[in-house]
């Protein structure tokens, strides 16, 4: 048993002794009808196997990879992340009509044109639903919820 564990066990035993003395004082001051009954507050009860629950001090981790391997892993994972982001932007370029594959584009331009396109789609959806309701008023209840798009309110 190493020094820290034995020190921890001694501390736990000291705390147990202090609690037991407090409980004895409490029991002697507590009036009871039956002298065989010992009143102990439940919060002061300590499990018998407390010594086994002492948190062990962590040893310093051994490096499994060299510094070069760690750096190479970081570089490769960052490269994969950038490729994924690039693929997502390329997908947006194919979906948004205002974006052209051959134009020089920044993230900001992609965001702005995507927002403009989505806003246009929401307006167009609202316009088409209104037109359907005007031309076929008896069919209003047949408009499914997935056809109704609503923009979130700006705060």
From TrEMBL:
Molecular-function annotations in GO: protein dimerization activity
Entry-linked Gene3D superfamilies: Helix-loop-helix DNA-binding domain (4.10.280.10)
Annotated coiled-coil segments of the chain: none
A Pfam family that the UniProt record links to this protein: bHLH_INO4
SUPFAM superfamilies: HLH, helix-loop-helix DNA-binding domain (SSF47459)
Organism: Maudiozyma barnettii
InterPro entries the UniProt entry points to: bHLH_dom, bHLH_INO4, HLH_DNA-bd_sf
Record's protein name: Similar to Saccharomyces cerevisiae YOL108C INO4 Transcription factor required for derepression of inositol-choline-regulated genes involved in phospholipid synthesis
Domain (BHLH): residue spans on this chain: 69-121
């Amino acid at each position: 048993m190493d020094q820290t564990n034995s020190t921890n066990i001694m501390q736990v035993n000291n705390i147990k002794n202090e609690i037991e003395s407090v409980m004895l004082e409490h029991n002697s001051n507590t009036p009871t009808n039956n002298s065989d009954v010992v009143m102990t507050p439940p919060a002061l009860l300590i499990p018998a196997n407390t010594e086994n629950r002492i948190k062990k001090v962590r040893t310093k981790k051994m490096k499994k990879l060299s510094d070069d391997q760690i750096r190479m892993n970081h570089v490769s994972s960052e490269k994969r992340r950038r490729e994924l982001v690039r693929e997502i932007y390329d997908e947006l370029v194919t979906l948004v009509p205002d974006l052209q594959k051959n134009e020089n584009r920044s993230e900001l331009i992609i965001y702005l044109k995507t927002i403009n396109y989505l806003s246009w789609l929401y307006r167009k959806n609202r316009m088409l639903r209104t037109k359907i309701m005007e031309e076929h008023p008896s069919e209003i209840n047949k408009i499914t919820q997935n056809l109704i798009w609503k923009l979130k309110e700006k705060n």
